Amino acid sequence: MRRRTPDETWPPAPTGDGAQIREMVVVPVPARSRTMRDAMERFAASLAAAGSADADSFRPDLSRDEIATTASGLGLTFPEDIYVLYGYCDGMSPPKSAAAAVDGYRLLPLADAAALHRTRGGGALLPLFRRGERYYHVQCGLGDDRFGEVIHDIPEEEPWPAFASVKTMFETICDWYAVGLEIAPEAGTTNTVCGPISP
Description:
The protein has one domain (36-181): SMI1/KNR4-like (3-Layer(aba) Sandwich), CATH 3.40.1580. It contains 5 helices and 7 strands, in the order αααβαββββαββ. It has helices at residues 36-49, 64-74, 80-88, 110-119, 166-178, and strands at residues 106-107, 125-131, 134-139, 150-153, 160-163, 181-185, 192-196. The strands form 2 sheets. The chain has a 5-stranded antiparallel beta sheet with strand order 1-2-3-4-5. Strand 6 (181-185) and strand 7 (192-196) form a beta hairpin. Helix 1 (36-49) packs across helix 3 and helix 1 runs parallel beside helix 5 (166-178). The radius of gyration is 18 Å and the shape is globular. 32% of the residues are buried. Mean pLDDT is 76; it is low at 1-29 and 189-199.
């Protein structure tokens, strides 16, 4: 998809003979981050470059020992991506904008994620992002063939794998920002839509 100009509606009007055909423009795929730390730095830079109201919402980082203590207390084995993520920032403050950084979801501080894990019955899923009763969890069950995957969990559906890893999730978010798109809540519905970035 392409970034719209200010006078266009979104999504673009259908073109061609078929009502379902929409204008598509091929855009180059941005280079992948070499490490999870690179992905986090790119994510922060993407928010700032887009003028997001949440660009300054990153909380101070945690030490590896603090993260490991939380994992042990929950009886979970955290993927390395989780150590890097929380070693970069302890989540983000509550969103200031409707779209926030990711679809209106908040990147949870680790203490909040741990508390939600306990109140939601434990298991191998650690909440990572939350919007209301919608979550992105990380699979922390060592030995599970989906260890490290990001699972999307919303009330209306069965949880399903959304990303192969936390790093892949952040890279994908950065790709949206690189081409001028974000995934944001659709007004008046429980759906999400892909559209131009809003501050």
